[in-house]
Design a protein that fits this description.
Elements lengths: L5 E7 L2 H10 L3 E2 L8 E5 L4 E7 H5 L16 E5 L3 H13 L3 E7 L3 E7 L5 E7 L1 H5 L1
Parallel strand pairs: 1-4, 5-8
Antiparallel strand pairs: 2-3, 3-4, 6-7, 7-8
Amino acid sequence: MYQQMIFVNLAVSDVDASKKFFTELGYTINPQFTTDDCACVVISDTIIAMLLGTARYRDFTTKEIADSTKTSEVLLCLSAESRAEVDAVVDKAVAAGGTAGRTQDYGTMYGRSFDDLDGHTWEIMWMDPAQVEG
């Protein structure tokens, strides 16, 4: 069966530093779609982050590129299997040079966020499966 994929394209100031950052979080780089000016970060079988150097990103848009350290352009949210996984991912991000963001704890839903090296905000969220299912 066909599974739709999402390719999140983000402008980054240093492709190599961004590759290092995301591999330290446990994600892999697909070398087939990685060049000097972009990195293909495999988050899951259906989620790919394309980290594009600013000049390469300009090839895809005529709009001004947001300075994500000052402006919120998008909130990226990834699910986690447990509260412990939420903490582990965010802790790895901070150890790799990211900045810790908000923690949200609603009992049946728990999440934390971090900003990556370029200020893109990533949320990691766990939801109680019993609540999600019904």
